[in-house]
Every structure is written in C-alpha cells, then in structure tokens.
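Catalogue entry: protein

Sequence with per-residue tokens
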Amino acid sequence: MSACRCFENGRALEARALLTGVLLAGGRGQRMGGCDKGLVSLAGEPLIAQGIRRLRPQVAELLISANRHVEQYRQWGYRVISDRMEERYRGPLAGLLAALDVATTPYVLTAPCDSPLLPPDYAARMWTALQDAQAAVSVAYGAGSWQPVFALVAVSVRDDLAAWLAAGEGGMKRWLQRHRPAVVVFPDQPGGWRNVNTPQHLAQLEAEWCDLTGRPGGSSRA
C-alpha cells in the first residue's frame, strides 16, 4: 500500500473516532408539499436510508435530527434528536445545535437527509481540512459555491451557536463565516451536491439514478 493511501486511511480512521454524524431531517418540507423529506422514497427506499448507508461508516455515532415522525425514524436503530422547543423549525442551525447538545465526540458532521450522493471520503476530507487549518469548523465547496449544510463543527462552539439563535439570527452560511471555516473542495463529487427539494428534483434524480450510482432505480413516492 502506498504512503499516500496509508495516510488517507489513517485520516479516515481518525475522523471516524472523533466525529458524530447527524442527518438533518427536521424541516417542514414545504417545497415538497409538506412531506417529511427523509421518508420520501428514492430508488425504492427512503432518503433517510440512503443517507444512513453513506454517512454511518464514516463516523463514531450517527444521529437523526427530526421534528416529525420520530417513532418512524427510530426504526432505523439510531438516536433521534429534535430541535430545542424554542428553536423548533429554525432550519439546519437548530438541528446542528441539538446535535451539539448531545454529542459524545468533540466534533459534529452534518449532512441533509435529502442529498443521497454523499461521497465515501466526506468525513476524512472535512476532518483533514479542519486540522490542517487549525479551524473550529470546515464547510464543503462544490458546484461553484459553498454548501453550508455540509459542515464539520467543533462542540466547543455550541454556546456561540445557541447565543446566535437566541438573538434571532439565522443562516447557516453566515454563522459558519463567523468562525473562518476551512473550505473543502470536492471537485470529483459525482452528480454534484444534488438534493431533493421539490417533486421535480426527485423525479429528475430518479431518472438519473442508475447513471450516477450504477444501481437501478425504483418508483418514487412520498
């Protein structure tokens, strides 16, 4: 095995030991007609199952952030967390804060439930960039822009996030910018940072699923 490959594997193992992953599924799904997006089917299985398969091998523990259908999400066998009552439905920052509240590792890695093309080296790249920059947070960059819901965040900044939300502030990107994040470029991410925000997005991704993943698609349904 090459020295480069050994380094990559070492960083992946290091990242896994120190990171809690959280799949963000706590939104209202308004652009999906109010559907709980994590439970919407793509290629024959719920989006949350796609996210679990991609993220779970990369982290020490996996959490699911959900504000609806909590018992359904628990069926996958992972801890389900909900937003603090005063922050309910405040967006991905509220889900991140809930994860920071309960994480038993020093870092939390976020991914939205509606982006099923998460790369297998997502955690390792995010961790390497954060360590190299000696930063408290890192954020993914792809498709020509920041992807702020794909972030690695130190638990040590939890109080700052709580104060930010308590002051009525919002915006994942604006909050991340406060901490001068390491920006992590993913030029080879297949399909880009595709997500499922609308029924049209779902239908298009379903149609392209075999080409993007090499696996056959199924019928999409809520």
